[in-house]
Specification:
The chain is of the alpha/beta class. The chain has a domain of about 110 residues. The chain has six helices and nine strands. The protein has a four-stranded mixed beta sheet. A three-stranded parallel beta sheet has the order 1-3-5, with no helix packed on it. A two-stranded antiparallel sheet has the order 7-8. A hairpin with a 2-residue loop joins strand 7 and strand 8. Helix 4 crosses helix 5. It is globular and about 45 Å long. The termini are far apart. The C terminus is likely disordered.
Length: about 210
C-alpha cells in the first residue's frame, strides 16, 4: 500500500492475530495496528511506519508499541517449537506484536531477558538492528530514550522500590538525557510518586557532575 494511514480495527481482546501473505508499505505510509498482532509471510517496510495508537490498561500511550521481529529472532528467544498467538512460526516470516515498549522478546512482560537484550544492544553498538536489541522507538540507535521506555513499564510492573536502583543506574549512564526522556513518557500513577522519583534522579545527576 502507499500513501496515508491504514488503521486496523480495535479488537475486543489483545493477541488477535491476522495472518497475511504479503505486506509492502511504501514510503510516507503509516499502519496503525491498534491492539492487533500480525504474522506476515513476506514484508517490506520501514519499522518506523508501523505504529499503534492503542493503550494498555494502567499505562499511557507512550508505554505500548508495535514490536517487530523476524521469525528467526522470535524462535531464538522462545525455541524452535514456539507459536505466535497459536500459529507456528517460520524463520522467514515477520511478526508484529502489540505489546509493552521494552518487551524485546515479545512475551508480554518486562523481565531480565529484556534488559539483557537492550544492554547487549547498547554495549555492542548494534545500531539499526531493531526491536530485539533494544531500539524500542525505531530511531536506529539504542540510547537513553529506549532505556526510559523500558524502565517506565518496569516501574509500573514492580513498583518504585524495586525499580529505583535500575533507574538510578541509567541516570548515571546517560545523565540529563535519560531524566528528560523519562519525564517525557507517561509515568504510571500515583503521580506524586513519579514526581518524587524524577526529582531524585535529577538530584543524582547534578551531584554526579561535581564528582
Amino acid at each position: 500500500m502507499g500513501g496515508g494511514t491504514l488503521i486496523l480495527n480495535q479488537q475486543a481482546a489483545n493477541d488477535t492475530l491476522s495472518h497475511l501473505g504479503s505486506l509492502i508499505v511504501a514510503p510516507g505510509t503509516t499502519i496503525d495496528i491498534k491492539n492487533n498482532d500480525l504474522l506476515l509471510d513476506s514484508a517490506s517496510f520501514n519499522p518506523s511506519s508501523i505504529t499503534t495508537s492503542a493503550t494498555a490498561s494502567g499505562t499511557g500511550p507512550m508505554t505500548v508499541a508495535a514490536a517487530i521481529l523476524s521469525g528467526a529472532e522470535y524462535r531464538a528467544f522462545h525455541g524452535t517449537a514456539a507459536t505466535f498467538d497459536g500459529q507456528t512460526v517460520a524463520d522467514s516470516q515477520t511478526l508484529i506484536k502489540f505489546t509493552y515498549a521494552g518487551d524485546a522478546n515479545a512475551d508480554g512482560l518486562i523481565t531480565l531477558d529484556d534488559y539483557i537484550a537492550i544492554d547487549a544492544g547498547f554495549r555492542l553498538g548494534t545500531h539499526g538492528r531493531g526491536w530485539t536489541v533494544g531500539d524500542f522507538n525505531n530511531d536506529g540507535v539504542v540510547d537513553a530514550k529506549d532505556y526510559a521506555l523500558i524502565d517506565t513499564v518496569y516501574l509500573h510492573q514492580v513498583g518504585a522500590l524495586a525499580a529505583d536502583s535500575l533507574m538510578a543506574l541509567h541516570a548515571g549512564w546517560f545523565g540529563t538525557d535519560y531524566v528528560t526522556a523519562l519525564s517525557a513518557t507517561t509515568v504510571p500513577e500515583p503521580a506524586t510518586l513519579s514526581l518524587l522519583t524524577l526529582a531524585s534522579l535529577a538530584i543524582l545527576v547534578r551531584r554526579g557532575r561535581h564528582v
